[in-house]
Design goal:
231 residues; alpha/beta; Rossmann fold; OB fold (Dihydrolipoamide Acetyltransferase, E2P); five-stranded parallel beta sheet; five-stranded antiparallel beta sheet; 27% helix; globular; 2C-system_Tx_regulators; Response regulator of the LytR/AlgR family; phosphorelay response regulator activity; Sig_transdc_resp-reg_receiver
């Protein structure tokens, strides 16, 4: 197992420390270093990257703003001197939040999470059965009809499927589940997919569906508005 990574960091000393730490971990392969998020974006468009070590305070585009532009980001470990952004960062499904100065033992705890996630078997294998999904929930086979699904929420490596009568959690990446869904479903945010026929209200920032208000991600906004016929 090799995890291909990049470091996005504008402080030379902090960059040197991260490069040194990465060189000591056999399963990490440093592909590139970047001093700003725009350079990182270019690399992500050119190469398959598994993991980003990302500083928050960057020139041109801040770290969390950068993450909000990515539809299917790789794993992310935040590296920063600022503790106050920790809670907000987990809205972006980051693996870990490292506070500078970073100790090597703490760095290893974070990168081990990336190794665990990479090695983790993605269950279940989702199948389309007539007009629904058929997969494993708590070691049992379950079927959910498409017409009963209201929305789907990503919870790291799991998803929560909210239906008209139930809430079901199972282990699968939301990006994998999205591939199995018909056109009646719409990805509105890195963490949410909604059933278009069940949408009650929509504005520039949110969708209301069955009384639940869900955010529209910045990078999804144009696609969402186009899909819903909003100018």
């Amino acid at each position: 197992m090799i995890i291909k990574c990049i470091v996005v960091e504008d402080e030379p000393l902090a960059m040197d420390i991260m490069v040194d730490f990465i060189s000591q971990v056999p399963f990490l392969k440093l592909e590139k270093t970047c001093t700003d998020a725009l350079a990182a974006m270019k690399i992500l468009n050119e190469k398959k990257i598994d993991l980003i070590f990302l500083d928050i305070h960057l020139p041109k585009l801040k770290g969390l703003e950068f993450l909000s532009t990515l539809k299917n980001p790789p794993m992310v470990i935040i590296t920063t001197a600022y503790q106050e952004f920790a809670l907000k960062s987990y809205d972006y499904n980051v693996l870990d939040y490292l506070l500078k100065p970073i100790e090597f033992c703490r760095f290893m705890v974070a990168v081990q999470k990336s190794a665990n996630q990479t090695n983790k078997e993605i269950l279940p294998t989702v199948e389309i059965i007539n007009d629904g999904l058929f997969f494993t929930v708590n070691k049992k086979k379950a079927r959910i009809a498409f017409q009963s699904i209201i929305y789907i929420e990503s919870q790291r490596e799991n998803v929560k499927i909210v239906t008209e009568s139930n809430v079901i959690q199972t282990r699968i990446a939301i990006s994998e589940l999205e591939k199995q869904l018909p056109d009646s479903f719409l990805r509105i945010h890195r963490s949410y997919i909604v059933a278009k026929p069940k949408i009650d209200l929509v504005d520039a920032q949110e969708i209301e569906i069955r009384g639940k208000r869900l955010p529209i991600g910045r990078s999804y906004k144009n696609d969402v508005h186009s899909a819903l016929g909003i100018k």
